[in-house]
Write a structure and sequence with these properties.
The chain is built from 5 helices and 2 strands. It is mainly alpha-helical and 138 residues long. The chain has a two-stranded antiparallel sheet with strand order 1-2. Helix 1 packs across helix 4 and helix 4 packs antiparallel against helix 5. It is globular. The N terminus is likely disordered. Bound molecules: adenosine-5'-triphosphate (ATP) and magnesium ion. Adenosine-5'-triphosphate binds next to helix 3. Magnesium ion (MG) binds next to helix 3.
Length: 138
């Protein structure tokens, strides 16, 4: 389902805690503990996740991909996600971009979330990558 090449990861842009803090300001719920188990592992950790209908699979994939980019520093262009249908692919793309931009906005709006973060200079790069992806150039 999800292939990740941990090429040239920049690492440590924001911490996982900062990521969740930003996410919960833009979402009505926190990921539950089982979902967090799919989000937390390192980019090099293979995962095989089985879950039924409407249990939060797309939520997990969305948050895992955003965590790889924002927390682990994995370049978005080195992440390949595939689905069985075009509809599911469109839904996943839309959620990654929608959530991703809202997380970026939350981080920009509340600088305290970013306190003690080393990777602030990478911020413009990631925002630019999201924008070029949204416009279909990424
Ligand atoms: N931890 C959570 N707490 C509350 N609601 C959640 C949680 N995780 C996901 N949801 C909500 O549950 C619904 C289903 O989530 P999601 O679309 O991620 O599931 P799915 O397994 O991909 O569904 P489908 O089988 O239809 O593809 C969505 O409305 C989502 O916002
Ligand atoms: Mg789904």
């Amino acid at each position: 389902m999800l292939a990740v090449e941990p090429l040239a990861g920049t690492g440590g842009m924001i911490s996982l805690e900062q990521f969740y803090r930003a996410y919960t300001t833009v979402s009505q719920y926190e990921p539950n503990s089982e979902q967090q188990d799919t989000i937390r592992p390192a980019s090099t950790q293979p995962l095989f996740i089985v879950a039924g209908p409407s249990t939060g699979k797309t939520t997990c994939l969305t948050l895992r991909i955003l965590k790889l980019i924002l927390v682990d520093g994995v370049p978005p262009q080195s992440i390949l996600a595939t689905t069985f249908t075009k509809k599911a692919a469109a839904e996943l793309r839309s959620r990654i971009l929608g959530r991703g931009f809202r997380i970026l906005e939350a981080l920009e709006a509340d600088p305290t979330i970013l306190e003690d973060t080393n990777g602030g200079h990478l911020w413009g790069t990631v925002a630019g990558m999201f924008r070029s992806w949204r416009s279909g150039r990424g």
